[in-house]
Amino acid sequence: MMTRRGFVTTAALASLARWAKAAPIESSPTPDWFRDAKFGMWAHWSAQCVPEQGDWYARNMYIQGTPQSDYHRLHYGHPSRCGFKEIDHLWRAENWDPEGLVSRYRRGGAKYFMALANHHDNFDNWDSSHHAWNSVRIGPQRDLIAGWAAAARREKLPFGVSTHASHAWHWFQVAYSYDAEGDLAGVHYDGHTAPDLYCPPRMVPPDGIRSIAAMQDWHKTHDGKWYEDLPLGDPFIADWKARTIDLITKYQPDMIYFDDTGLPFGEAGLAVVEQLFATSRGLHGTNRAIATAKKLTSEQRRYLVEDYERGFSDQIQPLPWQTDTCIGDWHYKRDITYKTVGQVVRMLIDIVSKNGNLMLNIPVRGDGTIDTREEQFLDSLTAWMDVNGAGIFRTRPWRVFGEGPTRAGGGMFSEGRTQYTPQDVRFMALDQDLYAHCLDQPHEKLELHSLGRDRCEAIAAVALVGSDVPVRWKQTPAALELEAPERFPSKETAAFRVRMNA
Question: Fewer CB atoms inside 10 A, N or C side of the chain?
């Protein structure tokens, strides 16, 4: 029997087939709410936001010579005396207002909302029945997932949770390391003081490493890999399964995000997804829930939604999919340069044209607030959505995703490599209308060759989305020719609504 987490075993496939036959769902599990939504927001929030030093702080603070390790030693002390468990205790979330934040996200166009349930730092953000390191007992002393869920449902948004703790067993092994150089060389960090948080020692560096570069290389080569394996029967698997099912049964999410290649831990992951779908069927009479994971096989796509972290598809996908990205680092980092609204909405348009959704993280500070620049970002995004959302939400892909010289690269971690022009246009269909989104505002005549009479049915009318100003246009055999208006109703992009003859 295969033990790789990224694959489903033969027995698991048989179980899936039995379940799929009995479950009242289509071959694609994707419910209409997700296909219609197109855009969601995410609070990727944990104690790692307290130092305001960005991603993977809980790991990197233990790796001597990294900027986060230097910061930790300067502000909190040596990790043999002050480890990450102390940061968990320092996390207070004292100014957290989930209702206000989620309401603001909804005004910014979010049609679903997701909260981080646990990260690789192995801390549960809910009243966990199987893990003492949780937000009710330690740190905020509040049930964060319950608060987020109530706020999302008050705004009538589907609610999702993300779980990343399946990697804690190797990601946190650095807590058992030590300084390779300096006054405290050889003094081990605090891993042994909290193995239930840091996970039991499995990949501990040998004594005697005496250079920072050699220690960094050791971690990169050993516990720093993105492992997708654990032996069957390992206690961590049962613990992960119990915690995740506890999360599902208590908060009944509409969506769960796995930060994994395929389902975590094979049949244990399958049992979690079955619980998710069964819970949804019990609530709604039919399954409305989805589960996302990464780098899926064709078989896995029948039951899961594929997620592209910080990436794109280079073509229309036959099944719905999702990109998740962030305006900065996943965990809050002060003074970072954020993405602009223009960058985000261009990503959104390209992704939606190819049958995808975009889920956007707005990093939250340790105290539970967002900063002034994030507030300004959301205000500008709200203004853009007020004009252009009608041509985004509820749409479906057209015959082609678009035209123009620029192609967004496919796969994960491919964002930031494209610069769009006014000739880059993406298409989306809704009822009798076709929306043509220009990824930069045209200043001269625009020719849409996909809409010429030789390729497309006759066009009845063309309008500028968000404006009553008439559009000058004509449809020739070769193209739909549009005269660019003098003014556009919003910044960054422009959208035309094209009505076909019935």
Answer: C
